[in-house]
Amino acid sequence: MENQINVGIIGAGAMGLLYAANFADKSKLTLFTHRKEQADLLNQKGISLIDNETTKNIHIHAAQITEEEQLTKQQLLIIAVKQYSLNEIIPILQKLPTKIPILFIQNGAGHLERLSELGTTRTILLGISEHGAGREDDTTVIWRGHGRTKYSIFQGELNDDLKELLTSSPAFPIEKHANYQAIIQEKLFINAVINPLTAVLGVQNGKLLENQEWHRLLIRVVNEVETVLPIENALEKVETICRTTALNFSSMALDCMNERMTEIDGIVLPILEKGDKTETSLPTLRTLYQIIKGLEGERYV
C-alpha cells in the first residue's frame, strides 16, 4: 500500500516477532535482528504466528541491526529487546536522526536511567506490553496471552499519522496514558513479584496460587515490594495476572530454564535500590535476586 508509515522494530525475540506480526499489515515494516542468519530466514519464510489452534504466516521485511541506512528511513522505532541488550542498542539509537520517535516496551525500569543518553529533542514513548508470547525458533512465535500495549509520552510529541497508526487495530489494542510512571511502576511491581518467584521455582504463573506455601511466599514478596513501591490493590493485581496467565511461564522462568541471561537487574534491582540498601531490606526479594544472579554467575563467568 502507498503512503504507509515506515515502522522499524528492533529485536526479534518473542515480543519483537509478535509486534512485527501485528504491525505488518498496517505499516511498511522492517524487523531489525541481531543476527544476519535470522534476518535471512525471516525474509525467506516470514513469521509463523501461532494463536490458539491457528497458525498464520505473515510476510515481513527483515534486516540486520547494523544496516544503519535502513534504520534512518523509519518514522517510528519500537525497541523490543530485553533490558541487558540496551547496552548495544543505545549507541545505535544515538546516531539516528532525532526526528524518529522511539517507543520502548521493556520489562522493568532499568531503561529509564538510560533515556538521558538520547538527548532532549527526540520524541520518546515509554510503554508496557500485557501480551504473553514465546519464541519457538527464529521465525515462529506463540501468542500465549492477548492483552494491551499501554504507552505514555516521556518527551516530545506524536504527529496525527502516528497517533492514528497506533490505534488502528482493535485486535492489537494500544492505549495512550497520561502518566508513564504509573504504567511502568504497576508492570514493574507485578514482574518483580511473579518473575523471580517462577524463575527460582521453575513453575508456571498459576502454580503461585495453587500451591499453598508458594502463595504465602508470593504474599510475602508483595508486602515487601509495597514498602518501597506502593500501588493500589497490589495483591489483587498480582493474583489476577497469575490467574489469567496460569499456564504461562514468565520470561524470567523461561530464561532460567534455557540457561539464558535474565532481566533480573532491570526488574528487581531498581526495587532493591529503593530500599534502605541493607541486607535486612526486602529480605525475600533480595534472596531471590541473589539466587538468580548466582545462577547467572555459574553460567556466564
Task: Report on the architecture of this protein.
The chain has 301 residues and is an alpha/beta fold. The protein has two domains: 6-178, NAD(P)-binding Rossmann-like Domain (Rossmann fold); 184-300, N-(1-d-carboxylethyl)-l-norvaline Dehydrogenase, domain 2 (Orthogonal Bundle), CATH 1.10.1040.10. 42% of the residues lie in helices and 20% in strands. It contains 13 helices and twelve strands. It has helices at residues 14-23, 36-45, 68-71, 86-94, 160-166, 180-201, 207-210, 212-226, 234-244, 251-257, 264-267, 269-274, 283-300; strands spanning 6-10, 28-33, 47-51, 54-58, 61-64, 76-79, 102-104, 124-129, 132-137, 140-145, 149-155, 174-176. An eight-stranded mixed beta sheet has the order 5-2-1-6-7-8-11-12. Helix 6 runs antiparallel to helix 8 and helix 6 (180-201) packs parallel to helix 10. The protein is globular, with a radius of gyration of 19 Å. The model has no long low-confidence stretch (mean pLDDT 93).
